[in-house]
Amino acid sequence: MSISKNYSKLMIKWAKDIFPLSRSLTGKGTLKTLHYFKKIHKDLKIISFNSGTKVFDWVIPLEWEITDAFFKHIKTNKKYAEFKKNNLHLVGYSYPVNKIITKNKLLNHLHTLKKQPKLIPYVTSYYKKSWGFCISENQKKKLPDGDYKVFINTKLFKGKLNLGELIIKGKSKKEILISTYVCHPSMANNELSGPVLSIALIDYLKRNFKKNKYTYRFLFLPETIGSIAYLSKKYKIMKKNVMAGFVLSCVGDERNFSLIESRLGNNMSDIAIESSISYKKNYKKYSFLHRGSDERQYCSPGIDLPVSVFCKSKFGEYEEYHTSADNFNLVTKKGLGDSFVIMSNIIYSFEKFLYPKTMFLAEPMLSKRAMYNTLSKKDLKNNDYLDIITYCDGKHSIFEIAILLNKPLEYVLTQMNKLKNNKLIN
Length: 426
What we know:
Elements: H1 3-18, H2 28-40, E1 45-50, E2 54-55, E3 58-59, E4 63-73, E5 79-80, E6 97-102, H3 103-107, E7 110-111, E8 133-134, H4 137-141, E9 147-157, E10 160-168, E11 175-181, H5 188-208, E12 215-221, H6 225-241, E13 242-248, E14 257-260, H7 268-277, E15 283-286, H8 295-298, E16 307-311, H9 333-353, H10 384-390, H11 398-405, H12 409-421
Parallel strand pairs: 7-8, 11-12, 11-13, 13-16, 14-15
Antiparallel strand pairs: 1-10, 2-3, 4-5, 4-9, 6-9, 10-12, 14-16
Protein backbone atom coordinates (compact mmCIF):
# COMPACT_ATOMS: atom_id res chain seq x y z
CA MET A 1 0.00 0.00 0.00
CA SER A 2 1.39 3.40 -0.95
CA ILE A 3 2.39 6.02 1.58
CA SER A 4 -0.36 8.38 0.37
CA LYS A 5 -3.05 5.70 0.89
CA ASN A 6 -1.86 5.11 4.44
CA TYR A 7 -2.01 8.81 5.19
CA SER A 8 -5.38 9.12 3.41
CA LYS A 9 -6.90 6.72 5.93
CA LEU A 10 -5.37 8.58 8.84
CA MET A 11 -6.39 12.02 7.58
CA ILE A 12 -10.02 11.08 7.03
CA LYS A 13 -10.14 9.48 10.50
CA TRP A 14 -8.67 12.56 12.18
CA ALA A 15 -11.09 14.84 10.35
CA LYS A 16 -14.14 12.75 11.29
CA ASP A 17 -13.00 12.57 14.93
CA ILE A 18 -12.97 16.34 15.37
CA PHE A 19 -15.66 17.31 12.86
CA PRO A 20 -18.36 17.80 15.56
CA LEU A 21 -16.32 20.22 17.68
CA SER A 22 -17.65 23.77 17.82
CA ARG A 23 -14.59 25.71 16.69
CA SER A 24 -14.42 29.49 16.52
CA LEU A 25 -11.79 32.20 16.95
CA THR A 26 -11.65 31.23 20.62
CA GLY A 27 -13.23 28.75 22.99
CA LYS A 28 -13.11 25.10 24.02
CA GLY A 29 -13.78 23.66 20.57
CA THR A 30 -10.66 25.23 19.10
CA LEU A 31 -8.58 24.31 22.14
CA LYS A 32 -9.85 20.70 22.03
CA THR A 33 -8.88 20.55 18.35
CA LEU A 34 -5.33 21.70 19.17
CA HIS A 35 -5.08 19.19 22.03
CA TYR A 36 -6.24 16.42 19.68
CA PHE A 37 -3.36 17.26 17.33
CA LYS A 38 -1.00 17.52 20.28
CA LYS A 39 -1.78 13.88 21.15
CA ILE A 40 -0.50 12.94 17.68
CA HIS A 41 2.55 15.22 17.84
CA LYS A 42 3.51 15.99 21.42
CA ASP A 43 5.90 18.73 20.32
CA LEU A 44 2.98 20.89 19.14
CA LYS A 45 3.14 24.05 21.22
CA ILE A 46 -0.05 25.89 22.16
CA ILE A 47 0.46 29.66 22.26
CA SER A 48 -2.10 31.93 23.93
CA PHE A 49 -2.98 35.61 23.62
CA ASN A 50 -5.11 37.36 26.24
CA SER A 51 -8.31 39.11 25.26
CA GLY A 52 -7.72 42.84 24.84
CA THR A 53 -4.11 42.42 23.67
CA LYS A 54 -3.27 44.81 20.84
CA VAL A 55 -1.75 43.05 17.83
CA PHE A 56 -0.84 45.53 15.10
CA ASP A 57 -4.10 47.37 14.30
CA TRP A 58 -6.28 44.67 15.86
CA VAL A 59 -7.29 43.63 19.38
CA ILE A 60 -7.70 40.03 20.54
CA PRO A 61 -11.46 39.56 21.05
CA LEU A 62 -13.28 38.26 24.08
CA GLU A 63 -13.38 34.51 24.42
CA TRP A 64 -16.69 32.98 23.31
CA GLU A 65 -18.17 29.89 24.88
CA ILE A 66 -21.34 28.14 23.77
CA THR A 67 -23.35 25.60 25.77
CA ASP A 68 -26.67 25.41 23.92
CA ALA A 69 -28.96 27.35 21.59
CA PHE A 70 -32.33 26.95 19.87
CA PHE A 71 -35.61 28.73 19.33
CA LYS A 72 -38.94 27.16 20.26
CA HIS A 73 -42.49 27.76 19.09
CA ILE A 74 -44.52 28.64 22.20
CA LYS A 75 -47.79 26.97 21.18
CA THR A 76 -46.42 23.69 19.81
CA ASN A 77 -43.30 23.55 22.00
CA LYS A 78 -41.32 22.44 18.92
CA LYS A 79 -37.63 23.36 18.83
CA TYR A 80 -35.80 24.67 15.77
CA ALA A 81 -32.15 25.40 14.91
CA GLU A 82 -30.89 23.19 17.72
CA PHE A 83 -27.19 23.82 18.26
CA LYS A 84 -26.68 20.36 19.73
CA LYS A 85 -27.86 18.78 16.47
CA ASN A 86 -25.75 20.99 14.18
CA ASN A 87 -23.44 23.70 15.47
CA LEU A 88 -23.82 25.68 12.23
CA HIS A 89 -27.30 26.64 13.44
CA LEU A 90 -25.97 29.41 15.68
CA VAL A 91 -24.35 32.56 14.29
CA GLY A 92 -20.77 32.56 15.55
CA TYR A 93 -20.14 34.82 18.54
CA SER A 94 -23.86 35.33 19.26
CA TYR A 95 -24.38 36.95 22.64
CA PRO A 96 -26.68 35.29 25.23
CA VAL A 97 -30.45 35.63 24.77
CA ASN A 98 -33.38 34.23 26.76
CA LYS A 99 -36.68 35.86 25.79
CA ILE A 100 -39.96 35.48 23.94
CA ILE A 101 -40.38 37.38 20.66
CA THR A 102 -42.78 37.51 17.75
CA LYS A 103 -42.20 35.57 14.56
CA ASN A 104 -41.61 38.81 12.64
CA LYS A 105 -38.83 39.84 15.02
CA LEU A 106 -37.35 36.36 14.92
CA LEU A 107 -37.20 36.43 11.12
CA ASN A 108 -34.83 39.44 11.32
CA HIS A 109 -32.32 37.16 13.05
CA LEU A 110 -32.60 34.15 10.72
CA HIS A 111 -30.09 33.46 7.94
CA THR A 112 -30.84 31.18 4.98
CA LEU A 113 -29.64 30.50 1.43
CA LYS A 114 -32.46 31.11 -1.05
CA LYS A 115 -30.45 29.62 -3.92
CA GLN A 116 -29.63 26.52 -1.86
CA PRO A 117 -32.88 26.08 0.06
CA LYS A 118 -32.01 22.71 1.62
CA LEU A 119 -28.73 23.84 3.21
CA ILE A 120 -27.76 25.54 6.46
CA PRO A 121 -25.39 28.50 5.92
CA TYR A 122 -22.35 29.29 8.06
CA VAL A 123 -22.50 32.85 9.44
CA THR A 124 -20.41 34.71 12.02
CA SER A 125 -20.39 38.12 13.66
CA TYR A 126 -17.04 38.23 15.40
CA TYR A 127 -16.47 41.93 15.84
CA LYS A 128 -20.00 43.36 16.16
CA LYS A 129 -22.37 42.44 18.98
CA SER A 130 -25.16 40.37 17.46
CA TRP A 131 -27.16 37.17 17.67
CA GLY A 132 -28.83 34.95 15.12
CA PHE A 133 -29.65 31.49 13.82
CA CYS A 134 -28.98 29.71 10.54
CA ILE A 135 -31.56 27.35 9.06
CA SER A 136 -32.53 26.10 5.63
CA GLU A 137 -34.78 28.27 3.50
CA ASN A 138 -37.22 25.37 3.27
CA GLN A 139 -37.49 25.18 7.04
CA LYS A 140 -37.90 28.92 7.36
CA LYS A 141 -40.91 28.84 5.02
CA LYS A 142 -42.59 26.23 7.22
CA LEU A 143 -42.23 28.09 10.52
CA PRO A 144 -45.67 28.45 12.09
CA ASP A 145 -47.08 31.83 13.07
CA GLY A 146 -47.01 32.88 16.68
CA ASP A 147 -44.47 33.72 19.35
CA TYR A 148 -41.13 32.02 19.89
CA LYS A 149 -38.78 31.59 22.80
CA VAL A 150 -35.18 32.33 21.87
CA PHE A 151 -32.58 30.60 24.02
CA ILE A 152 -28.86 31.20 23.46
CA ASN A 153 -26.64 30.04 26.31
CA THR A 154 -23.30 31.65 25.53
CA LYS A 155 -20.66 33.62 27.40
CA LEU A 156 -18.33 36.37 26.23
CA PHE A 157 -15.52 37.01 28.66
CA LYS A 158 -11.91 38.03 29.00
CA GLY A 159 -10.11 34.83 28.13
CA LYS A 160 -7.60 33.63 25.56
CA LEU A 161 -7.08 33.08 21.87
CA ASN A 162 -5.12 29.86 21.29
CA LEU A 163 -3.07 28.73 18.32
CA GLY A 164 -0.70 25.89 17.54
CA GLU A 165 2.95 26.02 16.51
CA LEU A 166 5.25 23.11 15.68
CA ILE A 167 8.80 23.79 14.53
CA ILE A 168 11.01 21.03 13.15
CA LYS A 169 14.52 22.42 13.25
CA GLY A 170 16.90 21.67 10.41
CA LYS A 171 20.59 22.05 9.70
CA SER A 172 19.76 25.42 8.20
CA LYS A 173 17.81 28.21 9.87
CA LYS A 174 16.21 28.89 6.50
CA GLU A 175 12.67 27.66 6.78
CA ILE A 176 9.54 26.57 4.99
CA LEU A 177 6.27 27.80 6.47
CA ILE A 178 3.13 25.66 6.31
CA SER A 179 0.06 27.37 7.75
CA THR A 180 -3.58 26.39 8.13
CA TYR A 181 -6.55 27.45 10.24
CA VAL A 182 -8.65 25.90 13.02
CA CYS A 183 -11.65 28.17 13.55
CA HIS A 184 -14.52 26.76 11.48
CA PRO A 185 -17.14 24.40 12.95
CA SER A 186 -18.32 21.25 11.20
CA MET A 187 -17.09 21.92 7.68
CA ALA A 188 -14.83 19.27 6.24
CA ASN A 189 -13.13 20.97 3.29
CA ASN A 190 -13.06 24.61 4.31
CA GLU A 191 -11.74 23.69 7.71
CA LEU A 192 -10.43 20.27 8.56
CA SER A 193 -8.74 19.26 5.30
CA GLY A 194 -5.92 21.77 5.80
CA PRO A 195 -5.10 20.87 9.43
CA VAL A 196 -5.17 17.10 8.90
CA LEU A 197 -2.94 17.43 5.82
CA SER A 198 -0.49 19.49 7.89
CA ILE A 199 -0.49 16.85 10.64
CA ALA A 200 0.25 14.16 8.03
CA LEU A 201 3.08 16.22 6.54
CA ILE A 202 4.64 16.63 9.99
CA ASP A 203 4.62 12.85 10.38
CA TYR A 204 6.05 12.39 6.88
CA LEU A 205 8.90 14.78 7.66
CA LYS A 206 9.75 13.15 10.96
CA ARG A 207 9.75 9.65 9.53
CA ASN A 208 11.63 10.28 6.29
CA PHE A 209 14.16 13.02 7.10
CA LYS A 210 15.91 12.33 10.38
CA LYS A 211 18.44 15.08 9.66
CA ASN A 212 16.36 17.49 7.61
CA LYS A 213 18.22 20.22 5.78
CA TYR A 214 15.70 23.02 6.29
CA THR A 215 13.60 24.16 9.23
CA TYR A 216 9.82 23.72 8.98
CA ARG A 217 7.34 25.95 10.79
CA PHE A 218 3.80 24.53 11.01
CA LEU A 219 1.02 26.84 12.23
CA PHE A 220 -2.58 26.06 13.23
CA LEU A 221 -4.38 29.36 13.64
CA PRO A 222 -7.77 31.00 14.00
CA GLU A 223 -8.01 32.65 10.60
CA THR A 224 -6.99 36.33 10.22
CA ILE A 225 -6.74 37.32 13.90
CA GLY A 226 -4.56 34.28 14.64
CA SER A 227 -2.03 34.98 11.92
CA ILE A 228 -2.02 38.69 12.82
CA ALA A 229 -1.39 37.83 16.47
CA TYR A 230 1.37 35.36 15.61
CA LEU A 231 3.08 37.73 13.19
CA SER A 232 3.02 40.50 15.80
CA LYS A 233 5.45 38.37 17.82
CA LYS A 234 7.38 36.48 15.14
CA TYR A 235 7.40 38.44 11.89
CA LYS A 236 10.98 39.70 12.22
CA ILE A 237 12.52 36.25 12.54
CA MET A 238 10.18 34.97 9.81
CA LYS A 239 11.14 37.78 7.43
CA LYS A 240 14.76 36.79 7.98
CA ASN A 241 14.37 33.05 7.50
CA VAL A 242 11.24 32.05 5.54
CA MET A 243 12.25 31.09 2.01
CA ALA A 244 8.87 29.70 0.98
CA GLY A 245 5.47 29.40 2.60
CA PHE A 246 2.22 27.59 1.92
CA VAL A 247 -1.30 28.17 3.22
CA LEU A 248 -3.27 24.93 3.04
CA SER A 249 -7.00 25.42 2.64
CA CYS A 250 -9.81 23.37 1.07
CA VAL A 251 -7.52 20.50 0.05
CA GLY A 252 -9.89 17.55 0.49
CA ASP A 253 -12.13 17.40 -2.60
CA GLU A 254 -11.46 15.67 -5.93
CA ARG A 255 -12.44 18.45 -8.32
CA ASN A 256 -9.62 20.93 -8.92
CA PHE A 257 -5.98 21.72 -8.17
CA SER A 258 -5.56 25.42 -7.45
CA LEU A 259 -2.78 27.92 -6.84
CA ILE A 260 -3.33 31.39 -5.42
CA GLU A 261 -0.17 33.36 -6.07
CA SER A 262 1.66 35.43 -3.50
CA ARG A 263 1.26 39.21 -3.64
CA LEU A 264 4.35 39.76 -5.78
CA GLY A 265 4.16 36.41 -7.57
CA ASN A 266 6.88 34.20 -9.03
CA ASN A 267 8.54 33.37 -5.72
CA MET A 268 9.66 29.88 -4.74
CA SER A 269 6.31 28.86 -3.24
CA ASP A 270 4.44 29.99 -6.38
CA ILE A 271 6.82 28.02 -8.59
CA ALA A 272 6.76 24.96 -6.32
CA ILE A 273 2.98 24.66 -6.47
CA GLU A 274 2.83 25.47 -10.18
CA SER A 275 5.42 22.83 -11.03
CA SER A 276 3.37 20.29 -9.07
CA ILE A 277 -0.11 20.91 -10.44
CA SER A 278 0.06 22.90 -13.71
CA TYR A 279 -0.01 19.71 -15.79
CA LYS A 280 -3.36 18.68 -14.27
CA LYS A 281 -6.37 19.03 -16.56
CA ASN A 282 -8.34 20.67 -13.76
CA TYR A 283 -5.56 23.11 -12.79
CA LYS A 284 -6.61 26.65 -11.86
CA LYS A 285 -4.34 29.60 -11.15
CA TYR A 286 -5.46 32.75 -9.35
CA SER A 287 -3.70 36.04 -8.80
CA PHE A 288 -3.29 37.51 -5.32
CA LEU A 289 -6.32 39.70 -6.06
CA HIS A 290 -8.37 36.53 -5.47
CA ARG A 291 -6.83 35.99 -2.01
CA GLY A 292 -9.01 35.10 0.94
CA SER A 293 -7.13 33.29 3.71
CA ASP A 294 -4.06 34.01 5.85
CA GLU A 295 -1.91 34.75 2.80
CA ARG A 296 -3.43 38.22 3.17
CA GLN A 297 -1.43 38.74 6.36
CA TYR A 298 1.77 36.90 5.41
CA CYS A 299 2.10 38.84 2.15
CA SER A 300 0.99 42.25 3.43
CA PRO A 301 3.33 45.20 2.73
CA GLY A 302 6.12 45.42 5.29
CA ILE A 303 5.86 41.73 6.15
CA ASP A 304 6.16 40.44 2.57
CA LEU A 305 6.69 36.76 3.22
CA PRO A 306 6.86 34.54 0.10
CA VAL A 307 3.60 32.71 0.81
CA SER A 308 1.16 31.13 -1.67
CA VAL A 309 -2.03 29.10 -1.24
CA PHE A 310 -2.55 25.51 -2.29
CA CYS A 311 -6.22 24.50 -2.67
CA LYS A 312 -8.14 21.81 -4.47
CA SER A 313 -11.34 23.78 -5.13
CA LYS A 314 -10.76 27.40 -4.13
CA PHE A 315 -12.61 28.70 -1.09
CA GLY A 316 -15.72 30.64 -2.03
CA GLU A 317 -15.98 29.00 -5.46
CA TYR A 318 -17.47 25.58 -4.78
CA GLU A 319 -21.18 25.28 -4.10
CA GLU A 320 -20.84 23.58 -0.71
CA TYR A 321 -18.59 26.36 0.65
CA HIS A 322 -19.73 27.73 4.04
CA THR A 323 -22.75 25.43 4.18
CA SER A 324 -23.83 22.22 5.86
CA ALA A 325 -23.03 20.41 2.58
CA ASP A 326 -19.29 20.85 3.19
CA ASN A 327 -19.08 17.33 4.57
CA PHE A 328 -17.55 13.93 3.85
CA ASN A 329 -19.48 13.52 0.63
CA LEU A 330 -17.21 16.30 -0.63
CA VAL A 331 -14.01 15.47 1.25
CA THR A 332 -12.66 12.01 0.42
CA LYS A 333 -9.65 9.81 1.08
CA LYS A 334 -8.58 10.25 -2.54
CA GLY A 335 -8.95 14.02 -2.40
CA LEU A 336 -6.82 14.24 0.74
CA GLY A 337 -4.36 11.67 -0.61
CA ASP A 338 -3.82 13.60 -3.84
CA SER A 339 -3.07 16.73 -1.82
CA PHE A 340 -0.64 14.79 0.35
CA VAL A 341 1.25 13.66 -2.77
CA ILE A 342 1.55 17.26 -4.00
CA MET A 343 2.84 18.66 -0.71
CA SER A 344 5.06 15.71 0.23
CA ASN A 345 6.74 15.94 -3.19
CA ILE A 346 7.40 19.61 -2.56
CA ILE A 347 8.96 18.81 0.83
CA TYR A 348 11.03 16.01 -0.73
CA SER A 349 12.26 18.46 -3.36
CA PHE A 350 13.39 20.93 -0.72
CA GLU A 351 15.23 18.25 1.19
CA LYS A 352 16.86 16.34 -1.67
CA PHE A 353 17.12 18.37 -4.85
CA LEU A 354 16.38 22.05 -4.29
CA TYR A 355 19.35 23.28 -6.33
CA PRO A 356 20.75 20.22 -8.13
CA LYS A 357 24.21 20.45 -9.67
CA THR A 358 25.85 18.23 -12.28
CA MET A 359 29.07 16.46 -11.28
CA PHE A 360 30.54 16.61 -14.78
CA LEU A 361 31.90 19.12 -17.23
CA ALA A 362 30.25 18.61 -20.62
CA GLU A 363 27.54 15.97 -20.99
CA PRO A 364 28.12 12.76 -19.04
CA MET A 365 28.03 9.54 -21.04
CA LEU A 366 24.59 8.14 -20.33
CA SER A 367 24.73 5.16 -22.69
CA LYS A 368 27.27 3.30 -20.55
CA ARG A 369 24.82 3.71 -17.69
CA ALA A 370 21.92 2.35 -19.81
CA MET A 371 20.26 5.76 -19.68
CA TYR A 372 20.57 6.66 -23.36
CA ASN A 373 19.61 5.00 -26.65
CA THR A 374 22.78 3.82 -28.38
CA LEU A 375 21.15 4.12 -31.81
CA SER A 376 21.32 7.59 -33.35
CA LYS A 377 18.34 8.39 -35.58
CA LYS A 378 17.00 11.71 -36.85
CA ASP A 379 13.58 11.20 -35.24
CA LEU A 380 15.02 10.43 -31.81
CA LYS A 381 13.50 12.70 -29.17
CA ASN A 382 15.57 14.62 -26.65
CA ASN A 383 16.64 12.58 -23.66
CA ASP A 384 14.90 13.78 -20.47
CA TYR A 385 17.94 12.99 -18.36
CA LEU A 386 20.11 15.28 -20.46
CA ASP A 387 17.42 17.95 -20.50
CA ILE A 388 17.35 17.89 -16.72
CA ILE A 389 21.15 17.89 -16.43
CA THR A 390 21.24 20.91 -18.75
CA TYR A 391 19.73 23.01 -15.96
CA CYS A 392 21.48 21.32 -13.02
CA ASP A 393 23.85 24.23 -12.51
CA GLY A 394 23.22 24.79 -8.80
CA LYS A 395 21.31 27.97 -9.65
CA HIS A 396 18.03 26.64 -11.02
CA SER A 397 15.68 25.10 -8.46
CA ILE A 398 14.06 21.77 -9.20
CA PHE A 399 10.75 23.63 -9.43
CA GLU A 400 12.11 25.91 -12.13
CA ILE A 401 13.56 22.93 -13.99
CA ALA A 402 10.19 21.16 -14.00
CA ILE A 403 8.50 24.25 -15.43
CA LEU A 404 11.23 24.80 -18.04
CA LEU A 405 10.88 21.19 -19.21
CA ASN A 406 7.08 21.32 -19.00
CA LYS A 407 7.15 18.17 -16.90
CA PRO A 408 5.32 17.39 -13.64
CA LEU A 409 7.45 17.82 -10.53
CA GLU A 410 6.62 14.22 -9.56
CA TYR A 411 8.15 12.95 -12.82
CA VAL A 412 11.23 15.16 -12.53
CA LEU A 413 11.79 13.87 -9.00
CA THR A 414 11.83 10.30 -10.31
CA GLN A 415 14.41 11.23 -12.93
CA MET A 416 16.47 13.18 -10.39
CA ASN A 417 16.63 10.13 -8.13
CA LYS A 418 18.00 8.02 -11.01
CA LEU A 419 20.58 10.68 -11.80
CA LYS A 420 21.54 10.84 -8.13
CA ASN A 421 21.80 7.05 -7.86
CA ASN A 422 24.14 7.06 -10.86
CA LYS A 423 26.25 9.77 -9.23
CA LEU A 424 25.55 12.26 -12.00
CA ILE A 425 24.21 15.09 -9.79
CA ASN A 426 24.57 16.13 -6.21
